[in-house]
Write a structure and sequence with these properties.
7-stranded antiparallel sheet; CV3147-like; CV3147-like fold; 2 domains; globular; about 375 residues
């Protein structure tokens, strides 16, 4: 067993806050998952966290997540038993137990899914994920960028339906098949993605993201305790850029094909008074436009924070009158490579836009 560190109860709160911010509007609200995980901790469970580089090359790692439109997740609370179900399905399929579990994405409630399963099964969780944020599709993962196999994977729902996809042609077909099943499941499913070896996680996982989320959440909580600006704490913790401060003036969204799509308009306040900001999203925020001009795009992390608390605001929770601050955080380096941009830049989402980043050398950073 590689060296590990137990994640404490206090760190669960930090993890939930940090992961919700890194979710860039998606990944599902972590609140119910946090409550379920704390209940398991109250019963004595503890989850070890292991570094990706400490895994044996031949270890088998389960990649755990939930899938669906974030607005649907609001209506269904987290259930550790359902998170465990596809893990057991995959272990039965491959004929062996996992050595560890890992996150498909660090964003939002999906950051807690492997912890729920690990707390029940007694497995460690790897300090890594495959997105460094949240994205709406498996095509946008680091494992897809690395051309690793997309199969097999398991899907389960709350109605006792189970689907095991034993083979798919590529990552795009993997997503297409999973989305068709997901819609029939009611736009929410629990999944165990294609198992990864320890070597694959070392080579293609995005390392350290659990600790990153915990550190980010800690910065927000401690800033509030000191009565300091939590948004400034987010920017300082992640080397981020403030994009806009204002209030939500209009929201349009629709759930289609297992995704939540739409846009939000924001009217400027304080130094941004007289300006407008538009956010376009597909589960996650993909494009920000200041006064009609593209200001930032995926794969940079576009995060909407409550201007007072510093907590993230998900795409399903945007509402008229909210006082919010838009910030950008830098994308994982892998997604800034030519191959990475093919999987994560605007055109990967069907948008006829080039990648625009406030972190480009020529860009002027706003304070």
């Amino acid at each position: 067993m590689p060296q590990s560190k137990l994640v404490t109860v206090e760190e669960l709160d930090f993890l939930a806050t940090g992961a919700w911010i890194l979710g860039t509007g998606g990944g599902g609200d972590p609140y119910h998952g946090l409550l379920a995980l704390k209940a398991l901790y109250a019963d004595g469970a503890r989850v070890p966290l292991v570094a990706a580089d400490d895994l044996d090359d031949g270890a088998m790692v389960g990649v755990v997540s939930q899938m669906g439109a974030p607005v649907v997740n609001l209506e269904r609370t987290a259930d550790p038993a359902m998170t465990v179900k596809p893990v057991r399905m995959m272990e039965t399929h491959v004929g062996r137990r996992f050595d560890a579990l890992m996150l498909s994405e660090i964003g939002g409630g999906n950051a807690l899914q492997p912890f729920l399963a690990a707390a029940v099964l007694g497995y460690p969780v790897v300090d890594a994920d495959s997105m460094g944020r949240a994205f709406p599709s498996v095509f946008h993962t680091s494992f897809a960028v690395g051309d690793l196999t997309a199969h097999p994977y398991a899907l389960a729902d709350i109605r006792d339906n189970e689907v095991m996809v034993t083979r798919c042609a590529d990552w795009l077909w993997s997503e297409r098949i999973a989305r068709k099943v997901l819609v029939e499941f009611g736009s929410r499913a629990f999944s165990c993605k294609a198992p990864r070896t320890g070597r694959e996680v070392k080579d293609w996982g995005i390392h350290g993201t659990v600790r990153q989320a915990i550190a980010l959440g800690r910065a927000v909580h401690e800033a509030r305790l000191r009565h300091e600006d939590p948004v400034a704490a987010v920017l300082a913790s992640q080397d981020g850029r403030r994009l806009f401060r204002g209030k939500i003036a209009d929201v349009e969204r629709r759930a289609t094909e297992g995704h939540l799509r739409g846009a939000a308009e924001c009217e400027g306040l304080d130094e941004d008074r007289g300006h407008r900001y538009r956010l376009e999203f597909q589960n996650e925020f993909l494009v920000g436009r200041r006064d009609g001009v593209v200001d930032v795009t995926t794969p940079d992390l576009i995060c909407v924070l409550d201007s007072v608390s510093g907590e993230a605001v998900g795409t399903e929770r945007l509402r008229y009158g909210q006082r919010v601050t838009m910030v950008a955080l830098p994308a994982p380096a892998l997604f800034l490579t030519p191959k990475g941009l093919l999987h994560t830049a605007p055109r990967a989402f069907g948008l006829d836009l080039d990648f625009v980043s406030p972190f480009a050398p020529a860009a002027e950073a706003r304070p």
